[in-house]
Specification:
single chain, alpha/beta, Rossmann fold, GMP Synthetase, Chain A, domain 3, 3 domains, seven-stranded mixed beta sheet, five-stranded parallel beta sheet
Amino acid sequence: MSTLAESYDALLLDLDGTVYLGGQPIDHVAPALARAKQQGARSVFVTNNASRPPSEVAAALSGMGVPAQPDDVLTSPQAAAVMLSDKHPAGTKVLVIGAPWLVESVRAAGLVPVRLATDAPAALVQGHSPDTGWRELAEGCIALRAGADWVACNVDTTLPTDRGLLPGNGAMVAALMAATGLQPRVAGKPARPLLDAAVRLSGCHRPLVVGDRLDTDIACAVAAGAPSLLVFTGVSTSADLLSAAATERPTYLAFDLRGLVEEDHAAKIPSPSSSGSSLEWSVTTDATSLVLSAGRQSGDGGAVSDASALRALAMLTARAWASGLTAVRAQDDEAAAALKRSGLTGPTD
């Protein structure tokens, strides 16, 4: 069998919650991506974060032991600027709510960034900045009510940090939506423009989307018809996975990025029509729950490896999607250990 890095020619990697968290690299990331390169997969870092330019992102990644060049990074402001320039001629004024990199992206697209509604902008672009406040949102509200075209870099409601989930750009976008009743066009995930731009950038033919969020990374892959890997190092949990809508369902699962380069650290989610049993695990259902039990070749008296627990989770996921059940129950000690490692809890018979 081949690893994921051997099966795909480009890895379209999310950053926050996938590669790093709160400015610190996530365990196993650097060696995994180095091995992925050796196995033939280029890493392209595709981020909804609108606050930093590619050069800064690449430098930060390199400082974490993940070698990267600016051309390996694509941000939502770049995709947003393309969306604006496709609709508006050069020299059009665009009200910018966001960080300096968003201003630079607008200017690089031949448009004129402004900060006040009194400048009569024809468009508004909005991206994450920790400095955005009421005054900036008020200028945006006035511009939108005057008919400005509205592009949001992304609509992530939260941003993962080492202090937990904090308000993301989507929270600020939601404030303007509430104030105006309008909806923006969206550049970043889960919309397709950012992913389409990443495919063009890499020149790849077999991309794999890699991320930690079902509602952005995975939803974007589904919308684009691309395979995806969900890692449990950021926002989405195993419980979220079991109840995922059809538009947010990944192809593969991994606890971390070792799943890209080690066969035992990734699992493909079976077809919902599969039998739900193997020599290792069996998944059945009762009136209210998914029931996991150890097979003839599972573990040893309750000892369950990460790889085995991941395969159990993949089987549970397929059965959950087919049945609509999301509560889980362990039939034996080995199943209980697998559920615990997967971040799921439930009674044991």
